[in-house]
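USER:
Try writing one entry.

ASSISTANT:
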Amino acid sequence: MNCLQARQRFFAEIQQPEEQIDLAKAALYIAQEEYPELEVEEYLNALDTMAAEVLERLPQERYPLKVIQTLNHYLYEDLGFQGNKNNYYDPKNSYFNEVINRRTGIPITLSLVYLELCKRIDFPMVGIGMPGHFLIRPDFEDAGIYVDAFNQGEILFDEDCAARLTQVYQQPIPMQPEFLAAVTPRQFLGRMLINLKVIYLNQGNIEQALGVIERILLLFPDSLNEKRDRGILYYNLARWREARQDLENYLEILPMAQDAAIIRQILDQMSQNM
């Protein structure tokens, strides 16, 4: 599988209606660009096997808390899944195949393992894109509980989520209703990719960061911030024509943007190099 084929498969998956997007497949197509030998079906089968083992462990009365307790015992005690607190910004934590192989990851990728097992045992849950941390919750009205897949499946209530937010930002953050809203599949994948983008940018890995931005723009083609960032990366790679196109487009739509002066300075510098 080459990168182009993986990109095409990712694009085809996200072109489907929102409710039909298969998050596991899409996440594995993302990983396939980094791991060309990755066999998607192998990992989908692994998830099927894990779900079958959970079903065998479920009690006859499937109350939500009992199901969650069973999942937690299986994932964190039997299989040893854990949050990677020692090397949180390792890119491997954002690649779904590596998370399954190494049984370690960050909140959103561990949440994806959890969500995929829940889907297969007919216990639907949804992702919750809280700022700075990712949670999941049962997908029924007034569930009132959340699961922190990064912290051994800890069960949280609204007050706990507010406390977790304060912990993440190390200062009191007023809880807003939208912080606990469910995310769509495209939003889920976008957040996964943005995490990876930030990691690669912090590592100075421009080429890989650019590849991630290109996939974010497949999800959200009108994102001006991503086009601006792509233009800056093109500039760093001396791809002047593509950089100018993105950055001029950004200024045309947002001439009064806070970073407009910096973008104009970059464009001036490019003019001297062209």
